[in-house]
Records
---
Amino acid sequence: MLAAGCAVSLACAPAHAEYDVKIDAPKSIRDLLERHLDLSRYKDRKDITDDQLQYMVETIGDQVTKLTATEGYFVPKATAKLDGPPDHRVVNVKVEPGPRTTIDNVALDFTGAITQDAKRIDELKKSWSLQHGMAFRQAGWDKAKDDSLAALQSKRYYAAKQTSSQARVDPDESKADLSVGYDSGPAYTLGPLDVQGLSRYPISIINHVNPLRVGEDYSADRLQALQAAIQGQPYFSNAIVDLGDDPKNPVNAPVRVRVREYPPNRITSGVGYGTDTGASLEGRYQYLNLFSKAWVLDTQARIEQRRQYLFAGVTVPPDDKQYVNSLYTSMDRTDTSGTETRSYRSGFKQTRVRGIYETSFTVDFYYDDLRPDGAERQLSKALVPGFAWTRRDVDDPLFPRRGNIITTQIGAAVKGVLTDQSFVRSYSRIRQFVPVGQRDIFVARGELGAVITSGSGDGVPATLRFRTGGTQSVRGYDFQSIGNDVNGSTLPTKFLVTGGLEYQRWFLPQWGAAVFWDTGTATDNWSERRWFNGVGVGVRWKSPVGPIQLDMAYGIQQKQFRPSVSLGIAF
């Protein structure tokens, strides 16, 4: 904020006013002054003259008052003194901010249709973030107004707007009275969908996942639910759902849905590395309009050092009850901990997603070939009807800080019905995220699995039994190295329990560190179980392609350090 006269003289005056700045002020305002005072901003410029420097020193009070007012300090005392020889001058700035202004009274005024909804007005007033006695800051004042308007617009009052605002500050008393006016406009209800951007795929795809009802009250969350349901379909790269820029009629206003379609042929690929199964290369081809009915043909191949996976399936679009049916077949080969497993699987799956809940009914046929180095080969098959239930309630699906993800599965097979051995299988997993402060996260994890059958489980397909150890289970141990140890080979078991606690400290928005403890067991006889524990530290990175973790874990029972790495890049 150099004066105009000083700015004009830049080109013609001698430029030799090099100097340093030292600011003596409380931390609450020191960073602000160091960033925004002209004396600080221009100290490294070579074209500042002595006159301009003197002007900035003499007007320091005005600048400080304007800056500290944004933090609630309206009566600061500021001095600036130029010291030192001509070749090493120092401007010493001293600021006493004075008392901080606090909020005394808040008045929120509402007009429009909301005046008939006293309960909603009361909710908005109670949720107003600046209360009596709190410090007044310009940033907080602006945010409170914006948040209140957004809350008003989120339910029923789509066209609400702020009509007035005033902050009356009494510097002598260090008090601020705040007043804001809002016009809610009319109450909106939802009408039929107005879908734009479709050319390849039928509109029934969108209609069948639409949870909205004509005539229901407008809700931003409800529109977001429709948008998420559309984006969850494989046919669309993007979807935007709103009521348009200027809906003319608030009664049954059309819901505008704008979609961007994927082309029918989609090819994706990627490379990665993990300490569990080594380096990986994967490819995927999808044809999204099989038989011109929007059936999805999906083929996948993933080649890793210790695992190879092939998949092919056909999925039909959701029906009018939001069920999605699919047929599939796969081959999965792993070679870990002295045991090679080849699993062949074919099946049918019916899935429905409603909000945060997903349910699936399956009928799968397994044919497994278990080839341990130190034991006899095991061939087993089973026809397994099953049910799975998942709850995903997190604030961010990619980088969650709050909420939980819960999965539970149950299945059964009967000997003689394409099955070698009768059994009931259950499996559950939970992951809980708890925010700590502004950035940190506490993560708790638990996992339970059981195969209930008479005698040994050798006749149950190996991939339906349990081994553990590795990046996603018990760090500090090799992948799937915890189980039945038979002559150096780790065989799958009937029972599984794992758990873990992790604290993540985020030093920067994208970078953090973690400390963790994992524990678990996999056994055929619960009375003979042996617990394996791992502790360690790690690095966390919120990369553009997703979360990446680099850990170093110590397996307490094996008394050995092991790295634990998981990363991948799609292209």
---
Amino acid sequence: MKGRMSEVAAATGGRLHGEDAAFAGVGIDTRTLEPGMLFVALRGERFDGHDFLDAARTRGAAGALVARPAALPLPQVVVRDTQAALSALAAAWRARSGALVIGVGGSNGKTTSKEMLAAILSGHGPTLATRGNLNNHIGVPLTLLGLAPAHRYAVIEMGANHPGEIAALAALAKPAIALVTNAGDEHLEGFGDLAGVARAEGEMFAALGADGIAVVNADDPFCELWLTMAPRGARIVRFGIDAPADVRAQAIAGQIEAGGFVTAFVLSVAGEQARVKLPLAGRHNVSNALGAAAAAHAAGVPLPAIVAGLEKMRPVAGRLQLKTGLRGSWLIDDSYNANPSSVRAGIDVLCALPGEHWLVLGEMAELGAGTVASHAGVGDYARRAGITRLFAVGAAARHAVDAFGARATWYEDPARLGDALAASLEPGVTALVKGSRINCLERVVERLATALPAAGNGN
């Protein structure tokens, strides 16, 4: 965003103290703030941006958006709530953009699908996309404030852990196209049950206008629910592997090429077909690719450009990345996050590979009343899939160890887990490393990996 402090005051209902300075860009962290930017002093449980106003001035901020003015030679717009003001500013800036906005949500695969869609669209026109997984009440407004007049497309990832949060984010972004990858057993602590997850994800469809396009996973058990949540008159584009759909995949085959995962399949889009070599592993990533292809098709992108974008997809760190491990072993780094359905998907990828299969499992967070059953279920699934050893860390992961039985071991902390793996890995073993962020399993991967991942790996 580029503008003047008076425009910030008008958009947020605030009062301007000081000169009507011009600014370019909006930031919330003085460590990354660039000269000429507007600094927004957010407040959280453990921080208060107002404590860093002088640092923002020193870094060259053109002005600040504050709830508590400071006696500094810095133009300031004073509001009651800086978080609400950030959202209001983003909404005003979004309203001035002519970009086609596509919202991406879902329990699993939304970040990967967002990256796939951005890879497709960027070959067809200037594209803004959510960085990393900045998909919450702070990340979405900041992403929208990055819109520039040159942008033809904007891919906005939206995440939530309570009902109503997607609705609020979609009200800001106002997507013309909405893609929901699936509904899975994540954040059950906030949503209550799987149906609650599905209803929350469907809030993005409900936010569409009558001329909007809902991109719906025909394979998902909640497909029919989502169809009822889309407004009357909205266009529906279905994607799926098993169910009848507008965008489908056939002849799916996975392999390893040049040290990286490749999944080949035939992509069908509205009657046209083309072969795709997706540089990612697993049937679930084929589903992610279909969702991205369906959204791109809805945006008017031709099939050859869709294929080109999928094949140039770069990996997302910590998502099914194949790495060489100690003593001739292999690691599948899926340490970024975990819920029961994504763990099962990772196990399926692991067990399709030759050799001996080990699972390194970190505790899965935010499962609420389902914590015990979910961990036990994953342990049982791993045993039945043919996993030969289970290494687990985190209190709740004990239940996975109990369900797995013999050759399963629980560790008190990631350091001891890393010690055990470093002493045990051997040629012919492939170990999947998977767990929620609270486990810091990326540090275990760093210790055990002997080389960087090959280009083209990822999830």
---
Amino acid sequence: MVRRLLVLTALTALALALAASALAATITVRVEGKTRSIFGSLPVTVEASNAMQALDIASTLGEFHYQVVDSSFGPYVSQIGKYPAAGASGWVFKVNGASPPVGADKVELKDGDAVLWYFATFGDLGGPATLELKAAGAGCYALSALDDAGKKVALRSASLHVDGRRVKVPAGGKACVGRHTGLVRAFAVGAVRSNAVR
């Protein structure tokens, strides 16, 4: 009888594990800190079912600390790396460039989703824009700035950084850096730095 119970328990645990992995999606995750990239400047592909799980996997792969506290609206990420949330500043996330209207543990990810965790200071108009960089031809790149809703907003004083050089990005968002060997990143006043692109 005990043996049957153990076998049944093991089979149930296996079924739950398989079901959980079947629900996981293949996504990319990146974590941008207050002063530097913490994980995945080139977004890293992982299997995760929600944004909280994506952060947990990233913390294991990148060997960084994060802290979660219970709040009235569910689990809240109160710290990633060195900097804790305080006042109007804290840790937030976007999926595919937009801030979801639910907590990180409630977001159901789909294959191909991109999760970005970042440190932000919020004002009257919400959080800072997040920058997204894409290759746009040989040595050229297209830069977009996205608000909390994932809508494009005007770029302010943006530049591409590569191989120790800075190239100003015009208002249209496209700039060419010419030949280079390093990764290209975008920075703009009051915005969260971009992903890196080869």
---
Amino acid sequence: MSDQAVSDEGTSFPLQEYLGMELSNVEPGVATATLLLDDQHANPNGVVHGAVLFALVDTAMGKATMSVIDANFYCASVELSMRFIRPASDGKLIAEATVVKRGRSIVHLEARVHDGDDRLIATSSGTFAILGG
């Protein structure tokens, strides 16, 4: 288990800031990414663009992965699969990512995205590589 969940709590990166994502660890192996929706997140049809949902999930999964690896390591997305359940157009989105299995070099995760009314928006599975050291 890692101290990374605590040590990187104040860090952010440009895409996170641009989209307005808030990150937090629920517990080791579980992280959330929250986004308050506005017009910049919409596709031409007025609903959240799929790439925004993908970025939200990828970010939550990265945060969950970092919480289960040592601080001298980092992670990178290897594969993500997204299933869009229903559109979202306003309010808040919450992606919760959970580590399913941590191996020596690969971490498998699942995520669910809900809106502020707890309606399921999307589900995802992903694989992250453990790098560095």
